[in-house]
Amino acid sequence: MIAAMQPAALIIPILALGLGLPAAAAFAQEWRPLTTAEGEWPSYGGDTGHTRYSPLDQIDASNFGELEIAWRFKTDNLGPAPEFKLEGTPLMAGGVLYATGGTRRAVVALDAASGELLWMHSEREGERAARAPRLLSGRGLAYWTDGTEARILYVTLGFRLVALDAATGARVAGFGDGGIVDLKAAAVVGDGRPIDLVSGEIGLHATPTVARDVVIVGGTFADAPAPRTHNNTKGLVQAFDIRTGRRLWVFNTVPRPGEFGADTWLNDSWGTNGNNGVWTQISADADLGIVYLPVETPSGDYYGGHRPGDNLFGESLVAVDLLTGERLWHFQLVHHPLWGFDMASPPILADITVDGRPIKAVAQPGKQAFLYVFDRVTGEPVWPIEERPVPQGDVPGEWYSPTQPFPTRPPAYDRQGSSIDDLIDFTPELRAEAVELVSRYRLGPLFTPPVVSREDGPIATLGLGAGSGGTNWPGGGYDPETHILYVPSRTGFYSWELIPTPGPDVSDMRYVKGTTQHGVGHGGLRDLNVRGLPLVKPPYGRLSAIDLDRGDILWQTPHGDTPDRVRYHPALRDLEIPRTGERCIHLIGPLVTRTLVVMGECGYHRTEAGRGAMLRAYDKATGREVGAVFMPAPQSGSPMTYLAGGRQYIVLAVSGRTYSGEYLAFRLPSSI
Fold first, then answer.
1. Which helix (H) or strand (E) holds 129?
2. Which terminus of the chain is less hemmed in, N or C, by CB atoms within 10 Å?
3. Contact predicate 135/201, CB 8 Å
4. Beta-sheet pairing, 451-452 with 493-500
């Protein structure tokens, strides 16, 4: 137990400061915050507004196809076993690239030009890490400098915030307790008891967010169709002084009595329900002093009978004061959440001009393929968001919101709800088979609620979105020069089905996700394919460009090649199938440069170079593909770009199936 509470750290310095690491003196002269404009990539999303934008343009449409691998860094030895789901986006500052990797979530510093390992840091947390709800290497880390010293901050598997000296990888002794702050110390379980520091369920795979001298950290829970209890750990967001590790504030995403929103949990159900965390990236406007929190779903995701009411701040965007954590404004995107439409994407900060009026905006993509756009100072919608009646359900004990918010602009950028028209239509015979397959399912518009599964039907509610569609955690990108937002999305069916809980050893909830045929689990889609082909008609994945000054969709294009199982299917042998895009469970994020949008494929394909995936570039103005290069495995973490030695690099994580995690760095040949 002592080892779990006070774990050892492993630090391996590879090179001395004189061989390329950023020394303190390098930051002392005329310090200013690092930005992508200087060729750096100092934040997970490029900046704390998650624009994923860089003005670099050495790599463009004329030469993208000539990119070659400059270096590669395999993560196999950064843990006791290889990792096959490397989702990180590295940072680059001062000529050094920083990233997480491996099954122990190690931190590495690499020479940005050569990929040479400079140092590695690893925390060994024993049972605390083994019981963590969010495993593997996570999404990455955060960087901070005051012009004199520089720090790397990340969250361990065991939910501890670690501050490292960016030059050496050693813990910062003056931060918290020997460089560590225990993030479980402020968390409580549903009934208000302190959370167990070893076994308590809360963790994070997102990165901390740094704004001014404040570091902000969210938290999340196990992803399960049958939560052990609706009275789970309650979500919270914490902020700390970046120099000392002193806790500055805590924001309760399940409000307590006396806090704003507690009355939206009827029958005092705030006290017997949990989750509602912030599991994705948090955005911040350091100049305004505002932090933007995208909040997930309360327990459980698909049955809310234990929590009647709208349930703030579930599935809401909440703006809080950077220095105090005080709520400034909020907007609930889904009342009384039942669909798992949790805020999975980082909010994107954008300065736009609407009808001649400049607006500091925040744009929130969603799993339901809406883009919600607000004035980020006041919280007022930039375009009206209307409360419209939605279908009501009949699950015993459930509470239903009579209306849900619908943005009037921009229009939905992917398909929503479900109808016969959404089914596969390559041939009349395939469409007829699809119609027969869904005859025992409930179809309907967006927000058609879950059903109690019955063998004779309905087995489940079918819809496009949630875990299978819309925009997930990688989010979008934004060009601050043109005011155009680029967002990837996936078109895929998801099912919402409930069964009575089999017993108290499974869950204390009245209903959990499951079907009568397959029991507890995500079984509603198990048999829904047509001769091995996707039930939904293409495109399966797309990239959309949205003008935020007008709220219009400028163009859309399928992203990714046609899946092999579609391209080479016997039933389609004689058909000309246009490129369908990819149908990946989790999307991948874009990189936006001065002229290009860059995204890799998220699945394997047969290519001329062998079985692998392509990194593709699109013209920002038209959506036309202008180049592609081969990768040995699909993109699994969003790309970033920087300058090193006067040359532009694009770096991204690849992994999947039997290919373990690797960071690939591309650059143009020296002859170009």
1. helix 127-130
2. N
3. no
4. parallel
Element (H, E) at 406: strand 403-407
pLDDT digits (tens, 9 = 90+) for 522-545: 888 888 999 999 999 999 999 999
Residue entry with tokens 């895929």:
492
- Helix, coil or strand: residue 184: helix
Residue 13 confidence (pLDDT): 62
Furthest-apart CA pair in the chain: how many Å? Answer: 73
- Asked whether the beta carbons of 339 and 293 are under 8 A apart, the reply is no
Which of the 8 DSSP states describes residue 416? -
Task: Give, rounded to a whole angstrom, the gap between the first and last alpha carbons of the chain.
Answer: 58
Helices and strands (H, E) in the chain, number of each type: 5, 42
**Taking Cα atoms as reference points, which of 585, 550, 55 lies closest to residue 352?**
550
Pure H helices in 234-277: none
* Structural tokens at position 395: 């699950």
Is the CB of residue 434 less than 8 Å from the CB of residue 496?
A: no
Q: What are the backbone angles phi and psi of residue 420, rounded to the nearest 5°?
A: -60, -30
For the purposes of burial, counting CB atoms within 10 Å of the CB of 658, is it exposed (0-12), middle (13-18) or buried (19 or more)?
exposed
Quote the percentage of the chain above a pLDDT of 70. 95
State both tokens at 590: 């874009």
Among candidate residues 106, 190, 131, the one with its CA nearest the CA of residue 1: 131
Spatial CB neighbours of 384, under 8 Å, sequence gap ≥ 6: 408
Q: What is the DSSP secondary structure assignment for residue 238, as one 8-state letter?
A: E
114: number of Cβ within 10 Å: 13
Alpha carbon distance 389, 402 (integer Å): 6
Predicted confidence at residue 595, as pLDDT, reads 97
- State yes or no: cis peptide before 221, omega within 30 of 0: no
- How many other β-carbons are positioned within 10 Å of the β-carbon of residue 355? 8
* C-alpha radius of gyration, the chain, whole number: 24
pLDDT at 28: 35
Record the tokens describing residue 599, joined without a space. 């995204």
Give the Cα separation of 461 and 93 in Å (integer): 48
For 671, counting Cβ atoms within 10 Å of its Cβ (0-12 exposed, 13-18 middle, 19+ buried), the class is exposed
C-alpha to C-alpha distance for 194 and 28, rounded to whole angstroms: 43
Give per-residue pLDDT as tens, 595-643. Answer: 999 999 999 999 988 999 999 999 999 999 999 999 999 999 999 999 9
Beta-sheet strands, E only, within 157-275 = 160-165, 180-182, 209-211, 214-217, 236-241, 247-252
CA distances from 198 to 93, 203, 252, 530 (A): 34, 11, 22, 46
Name the DSSP letter for residue 423.
B
Task: Tell me the one-letter amino acid at 654.
Answer: V
Could you give the CA distance from residue 222 to residue 293 in angstroms, rounded to a whole number? 19
> What is the spatial distance between Cα 161 and Cα 148, in angstroms, rounded to a whole number?
22
CA angle 498, 206, 163 (to 5 degrees): 145
Pairing of strands 605-607, 596-600: unpaired
Return d(Cα 412, Cα 270) in angstroms, integer: 32
Q: What's the whole-number mean pLDDT along residues 449-469?
A: 91
- The residue type at 399: W
Count Cα neighbours of 520 within 13 Å in the Cβ-side half-sphere: 16
Distance CA 310, CA 316 (A): 11
Q: How far is CA 591 from the centre of its chain?
A: 15
Question: In which residue are the tokens 């076993």 written?
Answer: 81
Sheet containing 283-285: order of strands: 283-285, 290-294, 316-321, 327-332
Q: pLDDT band for 1, please (50, 70, 90 cuts).
A: very low
Cα dist from 235 to 138, 353, 564, whole Å = 19, 35, 41
